């Protein structure tokens, strides 16, 4: 009887671990992709260069950076 309980416990634990892993990883990825083009909802990493966004805005939409990414502040390269 003791054995069965142990196995059950182990299974529960494994389930929790499995839950924790991918979810937190997903969250990290989501947080890293926090620049969203307001026109096409394309997401960019927060470390993206301003130039890349400018090119996206211009090439894809013929718009200015501010129109696609209002409030964007370049964080890449900052200390
Ligand atoms: Zn876009």
From TrEMBL:
Residues 1-28 are annotated as: Disordered. It comes from the Eukaryota. Residues 37-71 form the At2g23090-like zinc-binding domain. InterPro entries: At2g23090-like (IPR039713), At2g23090-like_Znf (IPR039438), ZNF706/At2g23090_sf (IPR026939). PANTHER family: OS07G0114300 PROTEIN (PTHR33788), ZINC-BINDING PROTEIN (PTHR33788:SF1). This is At2g23090-like zinc-binding domain-containing protein.
